[in-house]
Amino acid sequence: MAKAVKLRKPQAQKRGPGKTPVSLKVNHGLHTIFVEPRRTLLDALRKDLGLIGTKKGCDEGTCGSCTVLFDGKPVYACLMLAIECEGHEIETIEGLSQGDQIHPIQQAFIEHDAFQCGFCTPGQILSVKALLDANPSPSADDVKRAVSGNLCRCGAYPKIVQAALKAAERLKS
User: Fold this and answer.
1) CA gap 72, 153 in Å, rounded
2) Tens-digit pLDDT profile for residues 26-81
3) Please, what are the domains in the chain?
4) DSSP one-letter code for 97
5) Beta-carbon neighbour count of residue 31 at 10 Å?
6) Where do the H-state alpha helices sit in 23-156?
7) What are φ and ψ of residue 70, in 5° steps?
8) Taking the CB of residue 85, how many other CB atoms lie within 10 A of it?
9) DSSP percent split of the chain into helix, strand, coil, nearest 5
């Protein structure tokens, strides 16, 4: 009679406490950086990769200024550890334009004056992009829901909704 064998689960690779290599797929490029395991994705993007379009606001996941796309879904970069992001696609505001050609969502934000101070704008735009990628024909209520996690202290919400709906029209044609 065969004896039951207990299989061991492979142990997760231990990292830290010092800096460790992390490979991040950001804006369609692979970047290897050395970070402490406690480093947030937000700080890795801004400080290690120089992608300062992603803003640091509250640093506690309430304002949305640090919104990036993580495998196409909007997330707060201040709440994610850089080491958790290996093997995933990350897109920042810098990844939207193609050379000198800005993205239709960015163009619509400019045309509709959908920003004032501009601090929340990168997060707003990426939240709108995630919505339009999932739903190319959103209603105004869909847009409001999509950007509900992004706070705008200037109160540009009506113009943000207009810009998102205009971008949706442009992307369909």
Assistant:
1) 26
2) 999 999 999 999 999 999 999 999 999 999 999 999 999 999 999 999 999 999 99
3) 20-94 (3.10.20.30), 104-172 (1.10.150.120)
4) S
5) 16
6) 41-43, 104-111, 121-134, 140-146
7) -115, 105
8) 24
9) 35, 15, 45
